[in-house]
Design a protein that fits this description.
With 67 residues, this protein is α+β, with helices and mostly antiparallel strands. 37% of the residues lie in helices and 27% in strands. The protein has one domain.
């Protein structure tokens, strides 16, 4: 089984290196709701639905829903 929070942690570092998501503070995976909450330095949040996703599908969904 994949550690989806670890995938989020590694993805956070990568996305911070991009122009669009420089202000990304954290990606938090909630197993009970199968969502990822993106928190930004300005205090804003966005929530991505990642229900039933594998690690690679989750990455794609996060990028589509957060950017």
């Amino acid at each position: 089984m994949e550690d989806l929070q670890k995938v989020c942690n590694l993805l956070t570092d990568t996305l911070r290196e991009t122009r669009n998501l420089r202000e990304l503070k954290k990606l938090y995976y909630d197993k009970s709701t199968e969502t990822v909450t993106a928190t930004f330095e300005c205090g804003g949040i966005k929530i991505a639905n990642v229900a039933g996703d594998s690690g690679t599908a989750m990455i794609s969904d996060i990028i589509k829903q957060v950017v």
